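haha ok so turns out i had the wrong file open the whole time. this is the CORRECT one, sorry everyone. sequence first:
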Amino acid sequence: MRFMMLAERESVMAGMAGHRNSMRTASGGIRLAERRLLRRSKIFTPVTLNDGERDMRAHLLDIGTGGALCFTETALRRGAIVDVAWQGAQWAAEVVWIRNRRFGLRFLSPLCAATVQSVIVTPTA
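then structure:
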């Protein structure tokens, strides 16, 4: 996959502004076209998810500033809000899609690049 330079990305986004698949939804969310431009890093890191009722063991399979790919044995529902706990840090996320035991998370507040980097480089126990 080729990553776009910032100016190129802005040009693509500006060109799509009037298109029905424009980058932002009415609620301010990020549509598929923009999410695909956000860089993800592959990892295999254990985390704990909490949906307000229970704690669940899970693994992050990739992570970026806007979201993550996750795997768990526990069933979740699309649209659920979960807290992702990792080594004392905690991030709120929405389950945006589910496929078997894998699912996509969108962080409610994007993570900073330094946080993502710390998750990538910290060895798992």
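The first strand starts at residue 41 and ends at 50.
again sry for the mixup
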